[in-house]
C-alpha cells in the first residue's frame, strides 16, 4: 500500500534537490530511526511515499514524523557520511556492520620504543592496530615468527632518552635469551629499533618481499665484513620468513594489491567475506553476518560493506573484486566484476570462505544447543504458515490402493522437529468400497482423532494431508464434526509444485525451496508415501497368498510365501513335481500341496488315504521301498 505522507514532510518533498546527499528520518520522539544515502535526494526520498510499501519498509514509513537532509558534492561523500552517521547514531532500522564477538588484534603501541602484543580491545590512543584475526592460532603463529626474527622489548617501562641515560632500568632475562636487544640500556638505538618496527608493519600487512630483501642485504653486509656468525643468524631468520611465505595461500603472483568482497544471502541474513591479496597471496580473510532489518539485498549493503572493510583493515588497494557493480563509486577505487580467469577464482574463494563460516557456525551452535536447529526450523514453519502455536507435534497422512483393492491409510509423525517412527500408524480401511480417496481420508481421520478425543490423548498442533483441496476438505469435515477445527492447524500438500493449501484460502502458499521448514514437510510426506505403500504391498501379497494357497488345510502364510518365492506363481506350483516341492518345504507339507492340486493322484494311491494330523503330518508310517 502507499503510505500517508507525514504533514511535516509534505512541504519538504517538492524542495528536495536533484543532488547526491544523505537523509535522516526522525520519529515523534525526535530520535533518528533511519539514515540513507542517495544519488538523487529528490527521487530517492519521494520513492518512500509514492510507491506501494510492504513489510518492514511500511512499518518504518509509518513511524516517520519528520526528516532532515544533507547535500554533498559527490556520491562518495554521501556514502562516507552515511557510514559515519550510522556508526554515530545506530538507528533502529539501519544495519550496523559489526561483529557479534570480539576478535583479537595485533597492536604496535604508540611509544618511543613501541611494543608488539595482541589484544581484544581496540583503543583510539594513536597505536597501530592490525587485524582482526578470526583465527587466534594464525595470529599467534605470526606473532611468534616476528619475535623470532626481530628482538623487541616486552617490558612495560616508559622508555625515553632521559630514562635510558639515568640507567635505572636493568637488563632482564629477555635480553639474556636474545629476545630483546637492550634499548633500555642504550644497547640498541632508537633509529635501529624503529627500522625493525617498519619491517614488522610490512610483514603484518603481507608485504614480505621488502622484508626479505632487507634481511638478505643485512646478511650480505655481515658476510662482507667477515661477521659470519651474525650472517648465519640473519640467514636463519631469512629462511624462517621464506618458510612462512611458502605456506601462504598463493593465488597468482601477477596479481598485486587487491581487495575481494564475496557475498551470500539466506532468508534472514546477508554474509560478507573480505579477502586481502598482497603480492599474489591472500594475507587476510574475514567474514561477518548481517541480520536483515528492512529485507535488504546484498546490493543494498555492498557500498557500506566496502567502506567498513577498507577502513577496518586499513586497505589502500586501488582495485576491489565484487559479484556485482555498486551504485556508488569511490575515488581512486576500481570495481571489477570478473566473469572468468584468476579474478573470478578469487571471488569463488571468497564465497567458499562464507560456506565454511556457515558450516562452522552451524556446528558451534549444535554443540551449544543440540536442538537449536530443529527449534529454528519449527519457528520458521510457524511463521511461514501463520500459526499461533509452535508445531512441536506434527502428523502427516496419505492413502494407498490399487483400483480400490486393499485400501490402506498411513500416518507419520514428527516430535520436536525429529521423525518419531514409533508413533507411525497403519489403517486398514473397513467402510470404503472402490477407489475413493476422499472417503478413505474421512474414515482414517474419524477413527484416529475420534480415539484421541475419547482417550483424552494429546493432539498435534499441525496436521498435513498429502493432496490438494479435495483431501483437505474431507479431513477438515471430520475435524469439524469432532470439534477440533480450532485446536488443530490443517494443511494440504500438493505434490506437483509442493504447494501448500490452507482452509479458507483459495490461493496456495509456496515456501522457499531452500527453507528447512519446507524440507521437513517434504520429508514427512515422503515418509508417509514409503510407509503406506510398503503396508499396501504386504496386504496385497498376503491377499494373493490367502486366496490361492492358505485355503489348503495345514498350510500357513510362511509355507505359502516360501513356495511362491521359489516357484514364482501358483500355476508353476501346480506343475511342480512332488520331489521338487519336498526339497523346499519338506515331505509332509509338499504332499499336502501336491494332493490339493492333484486329487486324482490321491484317489489312485492307497498309501495317501490316511488323514493328516492338525499340523499337517501324516500319522501313517511310510512303507519301505
From TrEMBL:
GO terms for biological process: nucleotide-excision repair; SOS response. It comes from the Bacteria. One of its GO terms (molecular function) is DNA binding. Residues 289-479 form the UvrC family homology region profile domain. It is found in: Cytoplasm. CDD domains: GIY-YIG_UvrC_Cho (cd10434). Keywords: Cytoplasm, DNA damage, DNA excision, DNA repair, Excision nuclease, SOS response. Residues 605-625 are annotated as: Disordered. InterPro entries: GIY-YIG_endonuc (IPR000305), GIY-YIG_endonuc_sf (IPR035901), GIY-YIG_UvrC_Cho (IPR047296), RuvA_2-like (IPR010994), UVR_dom_sf (IPR036876), UvrABC_protein_C (IPR050066), UvrC (IPR004791), UvrC_RNase_H_dom (IPR001162). One of its GO terms (cellular component) is excinuclease repair complex. Residues 18-95 form the GIY-YIG domain. NCBIfam families: uvrC. Belongs to the UvrC family. The UvrABC repair system catalyzes the recognition and processing of DNA lesions. UvrC both incises the 5' and 3' sides of the lesion. The N-terminal half is responsible for the 3' incision and the C-terminal half is responsible for the 5' incision. Interacts with UvrB in an incision complex. This is UvrABC system protein C. The gene is uvrC.
Amino acid at each position: 500500500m502507499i503510505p500517508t505522507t507525514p504533514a511535516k514532510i509534505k512541504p519538504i518533498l517538492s524542495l528536495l534537490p536533484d543532488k547526491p546527499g544523505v537523509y535522516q528520518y526522525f520519529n515523534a520522539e525526535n530520535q533518528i530511526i533511519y539514515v540513507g544515502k542517495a544519488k538523487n535526494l529528490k527521487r530517492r526520498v519521494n520513492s518512500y511515499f509514492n510507491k506501494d510499501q510492504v513489510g518492514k519498509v511500511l512499518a518504518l514509513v509509518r513511524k516517520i514524523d519528520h526528516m532532515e537532509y544533507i547535500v554533498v558534492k559527490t556520491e562518495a561523500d554521501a556514502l562516507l557520511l552515511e557510514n559515519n552517521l550510522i556508526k554515530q547514531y545506530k538507528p533502529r532500522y539501519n544495519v550496523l556492520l559489526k561483529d557479534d564477538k570480539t576478535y583479537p588484534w595485533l597492536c604496535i603501541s604508540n611509544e618511543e620504543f613501541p611494543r608488539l602484543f595482541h589484544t581484544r580491545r581496540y583503543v583510539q590512543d594513536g597505536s597501530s592496530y592490525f587485524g582482526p584475526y578470526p583465527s587466534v592460532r594464525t595470529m599467534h603463529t605470526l606473532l611468534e615468527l616476528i619475535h623470532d626474527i626481530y628482538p623487541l622489548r616486552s617490558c612495560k617501562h616508559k622508555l625515553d632518552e632521559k630514562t635510558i641515560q639515568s640507567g635505572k632500568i636493568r637488563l632482564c632475562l629477555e635480553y639474556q635469551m636474545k629476545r630483546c636487544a637492550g634499548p633500555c640500556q642504550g644497547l640498541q638505538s632508537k633509529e635501529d629499533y624503529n627500522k625493525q618496527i617498519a619491517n614488522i608493519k610490512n610483514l603484518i600487512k603481507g608485504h614480505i618481499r621488502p622484508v626479505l630483501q632487507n634481511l638478505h642485504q643485512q646478511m650480505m653486509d655481515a658476510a662482507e665484513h667477515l661477521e659470519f656468525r651474525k650472517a648465519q643468524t640473519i640467514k636463519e631468520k631469512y629462511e624462517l620468513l621464506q618458510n612462512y611465505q611458502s605456506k601462504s595461500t598463493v593465488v597468482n603472483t601477477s596479481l598485486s594489491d587487491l581487495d575481494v568482497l564475496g557475498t551470500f544471502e539466506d532468508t534472514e541474513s546477508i554474509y560478507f567475506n573480505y579477502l586481502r591479496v598482497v603480492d599474489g597471496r591472500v594475507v587476510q580473510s574475514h567474514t561477518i553476518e548481517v541480520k536483515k532489518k528492512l529485507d535488504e539485498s546484498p546490493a543494498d549493503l555492498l557500498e557500506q560493506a566496502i567502506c567498513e572493510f577498507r577502513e577496518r583493515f586499513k586497505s589502500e588497494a586501488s582495485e576491489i573484486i565484487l559479484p556485482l557493480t555498486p551504485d556508488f563509486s569511490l575515488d581512486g577505487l576500481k570495481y571489477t566484476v570478473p566473469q572468468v580467469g584468476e579474478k573470478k577464482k578469487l571471488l569463488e574463494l571468497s564465497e567458499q570462505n562464507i560456506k565454511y563460516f556457515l558450516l562452522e557456525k552451524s556446528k558451534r551452535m549444535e554443540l551449544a544447543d543440540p536442538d537449536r536447529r530443529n527449534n529454528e526450523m519449527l519457528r520458521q514453519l510457524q511463521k511461514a504458515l501463520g500459526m499461533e502455536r509452535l508445531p512441536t507435534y506434527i502428523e502427516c497422512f496419505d492413502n494407498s490402493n490399487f483400483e480400490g483393492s486393499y485400501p490402506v491409510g498411513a500416518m507419520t509423525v514428527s516430535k520436536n522437529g525429529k521423525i518419531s517412527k514409533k508413533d507411525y500408524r497403519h489403517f486398514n480401511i473397513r467402510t470404503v468400497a472402490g477407489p475413493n480417496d476422499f472417503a478413505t481420508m474421512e474414515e482414517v481421520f474419524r477413527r484416529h482423532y475420534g480415539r484421541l478425543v475419547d482417550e483424552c490423548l494429546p493432539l498435534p498442533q499441525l496436521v498435513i494431508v498429502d493432496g490438494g483441496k479435495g483431501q483437505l476438505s474431507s479431513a477438515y469435515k471430520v475435524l469439524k464434526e469432532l470439534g477440533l477445527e480450532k485446536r488443530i492447524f490443517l494443511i494440504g500438500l500438493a505434490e506437483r509444485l509442493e504447494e501448500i493449501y490452507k482452509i479458507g484460502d483459495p490461493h496456495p502458499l509456496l515456501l522457499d525451496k531452500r527453507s528447512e521448514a519446507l524440507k521437513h514437510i517434504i520429508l514427512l510426506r515422503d515418509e508417509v508415501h514409503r510407509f503406506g505403500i510398503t503396508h499396501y504391498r504386504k496386504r496385497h501379497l498376503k491377499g494373493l497368498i490367502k486366496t490361492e494357497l492358505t485355503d489348503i488345510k495345514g498350510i500357513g502364510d510362511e509355507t505359502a510365501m516360501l513356495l511362491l518365492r521359489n516357484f514364482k506363481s501358483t500355476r508353476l506350483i501346480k506343475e511342480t513335481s512332488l520331489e521338487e516341492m519336498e526339497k523346499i518345504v519338506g515331505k509332509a507339507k509338499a504332499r499336502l500341496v501336491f494332493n490339493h492340486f492333484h486329487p486324482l493322484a490321491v484317489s489312485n494311491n492307497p498309501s495317501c488315504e490316511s488323514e493328516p494330523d492338525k499340523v499337517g503330518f501324516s500319522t501313517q508310517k511310510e512303507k519301505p521301498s
